[in-house]
Specification:
globular, 217 residues, alpha/beta, six-stranded parallel β-sheet, 49% helix, Rossmann fold
Amino acid sequence: MKHKFITIEGNIGAGKTTLAMMMQEHFQAKLILEEFADNPFLPKFYQDKEKYSFPLELSFLADRYKQMKALLNTRDLFNQVTLSDYLFIKCKLFAKVNLPEDEYQLFNTLFEIILPNLPEPDLLIYLHAPIEKLTANIKKRNRAYEQNMDTTYLENLQHIYTQLLKSALYPTLIIDTTQTDFLQHPTHFKELLAQLEHDYPKGLHYATFSALEPSLF
């Protein structure tokens, strides 16, 4: 495997964790997953975004920093494949969408202090999905606090992820999830693994897959 630290990103409901877990099993890799289940501010945020946006974003900043710092300290980054289902800069993206300008500027000051101390991915895998598919996936996974999520919120996140991709900060492999099904179409997963053997310079690259088999129903 050419890439020792791979990050998988995408909008809410894009399938990041599912793909990360499949790759972890294949590579016997170290896996870093977003710690959201025990975050006390997340359900409150979906009930009252104005009140809980700032503590939510600070809590995620702290949690992600601890995870990334631990990765750097263990040096596993240089000895085995490491997978993460989030990019640290995600903190800044969500803060930009969720916070008023004065709070965002304070948050960004903290973010910029922390960022230089953390590792960057050798490869970013970005899962792109249309809003309709994101909404369907969110309903399917049935987390209670997500069920009334406003599609405008997903659209805003989609826009800011697009801005990130345009900045070309990392070697990035883009996957169109409308054309792939890693769980139900194993050939797609094999094709992805083959493409991960390539070197990718900084910038955007597009993964290619065989056509999905038509449904009989």
